[in-house]
Give the backbone structure.
Amino acid sequence: MSRSTLPPFDRADPLGIDDLLSPEDLAVRDTVRSWATDRVLPHVADWYERGELPVIRELARELGAIGALGMPLEGYGCAGASAVQYGLACLELEAADSGIRSLVSVQGSLAMYAIHRFGSEEQKQAWLPGMAAGELIGCFGLTEPDHGSDPAGMRTRARREGGDWVLDGRKMWITNGSVAAVAVVWAQTEDGIRGFVVPTDAPGFSAPEIKHKWSLRASVTSELVLEGVRLPADAVLPDAVGLRGPLSCLSHARYGIVWGAMGAARASFDAALDYAGSREQFGRPISGFQLTQAKLADMAVELHKGVLLAHHLGVRMDAGRLRPEQVSFGKLNNVREAIEICRTSRTIMGANGISLEYPVMRHATNLESVLTYEGTVEMHQLVLGKALTGQDAFR
């Protein structure tokens, strides 16, 4: 092929990654991007500044209508989409705001996935159709005030009392908690760690919202308090015993973060690139200076390498070949690089970079939470370290 017949360079897709996507993939991406552009971007800076997501139930129903909730799950009103398509949706949602992607991740990859993967047919029929439609919001209760990276040490307990279960304990930093209709709660039992499907209107259950956050402000974050919550015998997830259950859910959700982080990075990079082209200093746009171009080039390299990594992991997931260590690889790299892209974008934009008129500082502060939730940097380093050396350094 001669140079004259080569496709033009596309600054939005410099590696031609779109060539790897099917028409169906592109349609999913464009649908979610259009929804986020219309329904989130005009309002998210205000939501973030106010520290609330006042229309979360409305947004959940709209996300259900476009098939974004529980996307890769089959049946029960779920879209049955590919892992790549789900990843593309996460990228577009987080390009709008990490809080919106978190809403979808917790709903689909944690609460719905747990019920779909480990629940009884009765539990699936009772909850999944409403959750897929966005009529019912779910949350996932694993992290506790004193036990984050070490969930095996959780203090929440479930004991048998007659034919019932009785739950006592607290969970912390729970996305969607205060607006959820159902909570998947993990607790210690005499048989090991088990998962329970808990209707949030059960007596003894409460979910006070956590305030004064400086990250993920356009998101509902709560504490879960369980004080003698009595559940029937069939509230337990029958196919989840031990940490395998919650950890498999987390791996599924972390996969979405691998894509989502690149959405936040893309939005920040695009803002910096556009700004550099219009901001003049010393008589010309700052995009014409070598140091600015070096920053933009380095950011573009890491951004699109991250998208390639996410796509590769998605292809492996669709083939049933994605290992948890590979998900750790993706989350560790992509979130870390996304934060650096946001910080570098801010330097290009100077003081304007801290303004909510631009998305950069909002994405940067959100990613500080994304960096440590669903596995801190150190935990993913140790997962990879163990895989590489064969030595367990967690304890």
